[in-house]
Amino acid sequence: MGKLLSKDFLSGVMFIAFGLIALYFGQKLALGTPVRMGPGYVPRMLSFILIGLGLVICIVAVATSPEPTEKPRWKPIGLVTLGVVCFGLLFERAGLLPAMIALIFIASNAGEEFDLKEVIGNMVALAILCTLVFKVGLGMNISIVKGIW
């Protein structure tokens, strides 16, 4: 029973589950042929790859000594999820910069060590990088700060 609750085995099960879910949702897409691929060809092949990898991971996990699964740490899971939700809600309403600041600040509180100087440094570096990549480089029509730029 211990091998079936190991990290590797559960990871393999997760791969298999994602592959089966993708197969289910993509079943109505036309498959086509390798020469004339339909919209369902690549998703179906990727689903089979996920399922195959999951099976290999599960078999290796059962054949080797298991590494026990640790209890979930709810603080990091909750704060990172909250940060992503805040980013999604703020992006359209306030712009990229405020959304990114909220995401970085909230997600940074999920770790054991919180250093405000490092967090501010991350905010500045990512703000510059994202602005250069998405607004300047790719020319995307996004607001950096809503109503200003």
Describe the structure.
- With 149 residues, this protein is mainly α.
- It has 2 domains: 3-63; 74-137, no CATH class.
- 66% of the residues lie in helices and 0% in strands.
- The chain contains 5 helices and no strands.
- It has helices at residues 7-25, 41-63, 74-94, 96-108, 116-137.
- Helix 1 (7-25) runs antiparallel to helix 2 and helix 4 (96-108) packs antiparallel against helix 5 (116-137).
- The protein starts with 6 loop residues before the first helix and ends in a 12-residue tail after the last helix.
- The mean pLDDT is 88.
* Beta-strand residue fraction: under 5%
Q: What number of domains? A: 2
Shape: flat
Largest sheet: none
Q: What letter string, H or E per element, gives the SSE order?
A: HHHHH
Instruction: Give the strand tally.
Output: 0
Tally of helical runs: 5
Could you tell me how far the N terminus lies from the C terminus, measured between alpha carbons in angstroms?
A: 57 Å
- What is the percent of helical residues? 55-70%
